[in-house]
Write a structure and sequence with these properties.
The chain has 238 residues and is α/β, with parallel strands linked by helices. 31% of the residues lie in helices and 18% in strands. It is built from 6 helices and 7 strands; from the N terminus they run βαβαβαβαββααβ. It has a 7-stranded mixed beta sheet, with helices on both faces. α4 links the parallel β4 and β5.
């Protein structure tokens, strides 16, 4: 594993995710590493995830789903060391259960990009972290399209760090940047505690053999691209 620095002390880091759970399950180790390095971390979540199936749980079954998932994300973010959590306003994304990007009923990309740009301008990040939708999730792909439009609108350049869940890399990876295997074993225990904050969402790690789970929580595959003001937004390969 080669040396690679996610963030430095006093950096501002914005973590942009589609739904609650994407933080701990997807890029939780990166949040924990950035916080550990002394960066100020803001988790910016597009939706409350209340349109996604809930896992039955006798403790939380009576809670409104959106409120429950907001609470779960806030609790997980605190465990990971994030400084603040924000949700976008009245955003709808394509359903995550389909591999087909069907944007009917979803917030238009241009409108979503405007919201993201306004929130990110307030945070003024040095680094933006998001999930690369290599697993085909249409909600994350829709969010990435909007983020690609939003970042060039910011007043200064940012480093866009792309987390590849489970180390997956697809031929549709829209950034031809080198990938880094990042050792995250130092924060694996913190991430385990953050994952445990989610009672309403099945963990993608819970049925895995212990050795596989340990491996997945001990390293992340990340890519990076620099995005400057008014530079052309990256577009996916067709």
């Amino acid at each position: 594993m080669r040396a690679w620095q996610l963030a430095g002390r006093h950096d501002r880091v914005a973590v942009v995710v589609a739904r609650p759970g994407d933080d701990a399950f997807g890029c939780g180790s990166l949040i924990a590493l950035a916080a550990r390095a002394g960066a100020r971390v803001t988790v910016l979540c597009a939706t409350f995830g209340d349109d996604v199936e809930r896992r039955p749980d006798p403790v939380t079954d009576a809670w409104p789903l959106g409120l429950l998932r907001e609470a779960e994300l806030c609790q997980a973010a605190m465990v990971l060391g994030a400084d603040e959590v924000e949700f976008l306003d009245h955003v709808r994304l394509p359903r995550s259960g389909s591999a087909v990007l069907d944007s009917r009923g979803a917030t238009p990309v241009r409108e979503l990009a405007g919201q993201l740009a306004a929130r990110l301008e307030r945070v003024d990040p040095d680094v933006v972290i998001t999930l690369e939708p290599t697993d085909g999730r249409p909600d994350q792909r829709h969010l990435r399209d909007a983020l690609d439009r939003a970042l060039p609108q910011l007043a200064r350049p940012v480093r866009l760090v792309l987390s590849h869940p489970g180390g997956r890399v697809s031929g549709d990876d829209r950034h031809d940047s080198g990938l880094t295997v990042l050792d995250t074993s130092l924060v694996a225990g913190i991430r385990e505690r953050a994952i445990a904050c989610y009672l309403s969402i099945p963990s993608p790690f819970e049925d895995l053999p212990a050795a596989v789970r340990t491996h997945l929580l001990s390293c992340d595959v990340v890519g990076e691209v620099a995005v400057g003001p008014s530079s052309p937004a990256p577009t996916p390969a067709r």
